[in-house]
Amino acid sequence: MASTDPNTALVFPDGRLTLRGTTWRCALGKGGVRAHKEEGDGATPAGPLPLRRVLYRADRGAPPRCAVPVEPVAPEDGWCDDSSHPAYNTRIRLPHDARHEELWRQDSLYDIVGVLGWNDAPVVRGRGSAIFLHLARPGYAPTEGCIALEAGDLRALLAAGVTGFHVLAP
C-alpha cells in the first residue's frame, strides 16, 4: 500500500513521479523496479524510500530548498558499495580501501543528490547500496537503481517539501 503522507511522492514503474497532483518525468534503474533488490542488479527498489538528507556541490550552485537537512559535499566524500566491507552502504571519506562511488563527480549527476533510506536501518550485506535521488542524464537514460530528474524538476520537487518516495512495483 502506498503512503498517504502528502510529502511522500509516488514513483511509477513507467518513469512518472507525482507529488500532490504535480507529475514529473524521472529515470529509474536499468534493471527495472524490483521488490527483491540485490547489489549490482541495476534495479530501483520497490517500496518506501525516506529522503534522509540532500547533498549538493556548492561550487556548482546554490543549496536547494528542502524539508530535510542539506549539506555540501567535498572532493573527499564517497559512498561505500562494497558489500564485504564494514562501511557498506555508508558515506565515507576518500581515499578508501573498498569499492566505492565518488560523490564529487566530474559530470553533473550528483550536483544535487538525495540520500534515500534504502538498506540503511539496518544495513544488510548484498541488499543494495547508494540508492539516491539525483540529476538525470540526457534523455533520461536509466540509472544504476536510483531515481533521477532534470535539474529544474528536482529543485522544484525538493522545494515542494518532499520527504520520501514510495516506488510502486510493476
Automatic annotation (TrEMBL):
Keyword Cell wall biogenesis/degradation recorded: yes
Gene Ontology molecular function: transferase activity
InterPro entries: LD_TPept_cat_dom
Pathway of action: Cell wall biogenesis; peptidoglycan biosynthesis
Domain L,D-TPase catalytic: 1-170
Entry annotation: catalytic residues: 134, 146
The protein, known as: L,D-TPase catalytic domain-containing protein
Species this protein is from: Teichococcus aestuarii
